[in-house]
Design a protein that fits this description.
This protein is α+β, with helices and mostly antiparallel strands and about 350 residues long. Helices cover about 35% and strands about 30% of the residues. The protein contains 8 helices and 21 strands. The chain has a 15-stranded mixed β-sheet that branches. Strands 16-18-21 form a 3-stranded mixed β-sheet. α1 crosses α3, α3 crosses α5 and α4 runs antiparallel to α5. The radius of gyration is 27 Å and the shape is elongated. Keywords: Membrane, Transmembrane, Transmembrane helix. It comes from Sphingomonas citri. This is FecR domain-containing protein.
């Protein structure tokens, strides 16, 4: 295709984008657009490219790094639209070319930003993000998600912590969240993924998801344990439930999701949770000395609901509910077995269970 013809095709693609931006086309205009697209694959390719750039501008309208380019692109596009019907073709072309150049600049910025964008939070911080496709993501404290979008895929990697997702429906662009050797695939749904030291958790709030796990060089459907045996996680996981995928355990554990226990809720819920896991989750919000757990107390199991960020109340509640003590050092707060004549010995602690009853715990 010659340079002049390529420019002509691009100008026509921009002109059609402008027309569609102005409102619903008439039947005659829609017929003309369909005929133009059918004439040549190059028409369809260029039009699709311009629509993607235009849509990208709309989706990221308030991104600070895109505002100047967006304003220039829209100004040039509007100028081209005004001249489209009132000026000869040779006067319209420069404005269309400027609009195309600015749209391309916006597209490159979007591509560079979304191709490998890292969103993260500090300890105690939470963050809500609207992604380029319209999906929303809420990052829990001390969490990180890397986002990589393409024309046909939406790939995210949970590098640490926990995040919830409200996925914009698009069956042609699967939304996949990877954590460790597991992948959660959704189309239009709401769910969360949490990465802990030796397990991953998937909670489903609405819709459905497929859960895959690395097997050798590929992936296979994750199986879940249910009362009647085993079944694929995609069938077993229903809204209001969560899967727990543990290292070295082939089948996932299915259980009811704890009410209110999702990023942004302001609470952490524990249901027969190993103390090490509970502490790991609490530490995401702990801006003071981190809590540590002595090996002899690692299997103590706790249940309760805790207000995020209230670390002192959590420590006090654990010490009150279990034969444990909190040893404060310059480095951390160590939860360890008490050693006296009125409590269980350290060797009897594993397997101990209880409910936290601190006044700060609800």
């Amino acid at each position: 295709m010659s340079t002049e013809r390529a420019q002509n095709v691009e100008d026509q693609a921009i002109a059609w984008c402008l027309r569609l931006h102005e409102g619903e086309p008439s039947a005659a205009e829609q017929q003309a657009l369909d005929a133009w697209l059918a004439e040549d694959p190059a028409h369809r390719e260029r039009f699709a490219r311009m629509r993607r750039l235009w849509d990208g501008i709309a989706l990221d309208a308030h991104a600070p790094e895109l505002l100047p380019l967006r304003q220039q692109a829209l100004a040039a596009a509007q100028a081209a639209g005004r001249r489209r019907w009132s000026s000869p073709r040779r006067h319209v072309a420069p404005w269309l070319s400027l609009a195309a150049a600015l749209l391309l600049a916006v597209g490159v910025t979007l591509l560079l930003r979304d191709r490998a964008t890292l969103y993260e939070t500090r300890v105690g911080e939470q963050r809500a993000v609207v992604l380029a496709d319209g999906s929303t993501m809420v990052l829990d404290a001390d969490s990180a998600v890397r986002v990589r979008f393409s024309d046909d895929r939406r790939d995210l990697t949970l590098e640490r912590g926990r995040a919830s997702f409200k996925v914009a429906k698009n069956p042609l662009r699967p939304f996949a969240v990877t954590s460790g050797d597991s992948v959660v695939v959704a189309v239009g749904t709401a769910f969360s993924v949490e990465r802990l030291s030796r397990e991953m958790r998937v909670a489903l709030y609405e819709g459905h998801v497929a859960v895959l796990r690395g097997r050798g060089r590929g992936f296979a459907a994750q199986l879940a344990r249910i009362a009647s045996g085993r079944e694929p996680a995609e069938q077993a996981l229903t809204p209001g439930h969560e899967l727990i995928l543990s290292e070295g355990v082939p089948d996932a554990l299915l259980r009811s999701a704890l009410v209110g226990d999702r990023p942004g809720s302001g609470q952490l819920s524990f249901a027969n949770e190993p103390l090490t896991i509970a502490v790991q989750r609490v530490n995401r919000y702990n801006v003071g000395k981190p809590i540590a757990v002595a090996p002899q107390a690692a299997d103590v199991r706790v249940s309760g609901v805790f207000n995020t960020g209230d670390t002192d109340a959590f420590v006090q509640g654990v010490v009150a509910a279990f034969p444990l003590t909190a040893v404060v050092s310059e480095r951390d707060i160590l939860l360890a077995p008490r050693r006296d004549d009125h409590t269980k010995s350290a060797r009897n602690l594993p397997g101990t269970t209880g409910t936290l009853e601190s006044s700060a715990l609800r």
